[in-house]
Write a sequence for this structure.
């Protein structure tokens, strides 16, 4: 079944805690999943396929955001948490305090995409310095028109859209652009629903926003992606499957993860679900318009899962621009 993206995402907000119930009767086991709204798109497709083959298991799905998902996960309230950025030190400490051990499994790649209206004639590419000048906390209340960022741009009021502070997309973007996660101006339209960003940007020639690659792809006729000018000051790289897989779309390509509670993974239905997730991740990523890992990286991820390689390869530190191959070779930290 082809998943519905932005057009139905606001409806999904209402149904965030809805249970995917098998039509068959009888006692059912429950697998609880929450976390990133970005990873939700993959997990929803996986859960639907898994349900068709496992009538005795139901999967509850939510998307409280990466941060909101880890709050639940580290309290032992969920079995699996989707994440669009790695677990942080404070979340690692909370998990440790509550005796929660976990497996960190990459499932796909994403490209954070900076978008404007197709009617915007003055922007087709942008530097990291210009993005920082727009989004850093110092811009709040002071950088209001485009010419304040670049004198060659018009003196028209800018309108900004993006994810809220509980979002892993917000964390990753601010780390990559501003230099520290969660440092951002707050006078913009913040939303958990990327459809709000799509609609807001597409309707306003002076608007800018950022969102996941799948949402851009689904709405590419309504939005224009900006090329990110690299450190050489000349090369502008657009998000694409190629530029993400060859790591040239710097610094806005990122891995997407699921985190598995080790204790929950002792249950056969959870093990079966996670194995099914990893074995179908390549096709699922393509289906929802994310970028799949290489076959070698998926195989390495499955091995890490089978040998129960617990902890995080990041050690709780924010890090951008890392390849999956490098990530999977690291010895994880708990």
């Amino acid at each position: 079944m082809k998943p519905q993206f932005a057009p139905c995402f606001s409806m999904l907000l209402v149904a965030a805690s809805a249970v995917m119930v098998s039509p068959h009767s009888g006692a059912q086991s429950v697998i609880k999943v929450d976390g990133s709204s970005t990873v939700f798109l993959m997990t929803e497709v996986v859960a639907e396929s898994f349900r068709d083959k496992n009538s005795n298991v139901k999967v509850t799905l939510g998307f409280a955001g990466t941060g909101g998902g880890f709050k639940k996960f580290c309290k032992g309230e969920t079995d699996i948490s989707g994440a669009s950025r790695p677990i942080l030190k404070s979340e690692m400490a909370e998990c440790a305090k509550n005796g929660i051990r976990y497996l960190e499994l990459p499932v796909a790649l994403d490209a954070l995409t900076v978008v404007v209206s197709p009617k915007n004639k003055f922007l087709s590419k942008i530097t990291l310095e210009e993005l920082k000048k727009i989004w850093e906390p110092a811009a709040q209340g002071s950088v209001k028109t485009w010419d304040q960022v670049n004198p060659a741009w018009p003196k028209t009021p800018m309108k900004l859209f993006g994810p809220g502070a509980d979002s892993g997309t917000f964390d990753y973007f601010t780390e990559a652009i501003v230099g520290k996660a969660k440092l951002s101006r707050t006078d913009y339209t913040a939303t958990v629903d990327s459809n709000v960003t799509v609609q807001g940007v597409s309707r306003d020639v002076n608007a800018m926003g950022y969102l996941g690659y799948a949402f851009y792809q689904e709405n590419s006729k309504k939005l224009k992606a900006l090329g990110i000018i690299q450190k050489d000051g000349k090369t502008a790289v657009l998000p694409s499957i190629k530029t993400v897989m060859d790591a040239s779309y710097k610094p806005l390509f990122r891995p997407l993860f699921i985190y598995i509670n080790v204790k929950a993974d002792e249950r056969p239905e959870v093990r079966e679900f996670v194995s099914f997730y990893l074995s179908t991740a390549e096709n699922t990523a393509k289906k929802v318009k994310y970028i799949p890992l290489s076959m070698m990286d998926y195989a390495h991820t499955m091995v890490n899962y089978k040998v129960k390689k617990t902890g995080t390869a990041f050690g709780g530190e924010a890090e951008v621009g890392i390849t999956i191959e490098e990530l999977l070779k690291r010895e994880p930290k708990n």
Observations:
- Residues 268-287 form the longest helix (20 residues).
- The chain has a mean pLDDT of 90.
- The two ends are 38 Å apart (CA to CA).
